[in-house]
Prior knowledge:
This protein is an alpha/beta fold. It contains 6 helices and 5 strands; from the N terminus they run H-E-H-E-H-E-H-E-H-E-H.
Amino acid sequence: xxxxxxxxxxxxxxxxxxxxxxxxFICAALERHGYAVVPAASGAQGLxxxxxxxxLGIISDMRTPGSVGGADVHAWVVQHRPELASRLLFTTGxxxxxxxAAVLHKTGVPYLEKPFRVQQxxxxxxxxxxxxx
Length: 133
């Protein structure tokens, strides 16, 4: 085990997800692997939290209720919290949708396609956070 993996991160990950079962799955998996997690049930709630607190990284569903989706979260982060832009990853169950595919291509943000396994989530989180340091 590397020294960097022996201590849990001090800042939480922000998880933006509107589906309660998916949110519970993501949060439980991350917490089991030593991450602190702050949940947000919508993109708008996620932006409110991002405006007031510090985070290690962000996991955002591409589509959440209301007018703020994953693309909006990405744009806000780039403008207001650029240090987190490379620590953002998307989850989506809709990669066949042309709009979703265009956003994923344009932003270059790493993503997980639902459904995904715990190890896929943890590997991508570790990769994204490692790449940002």
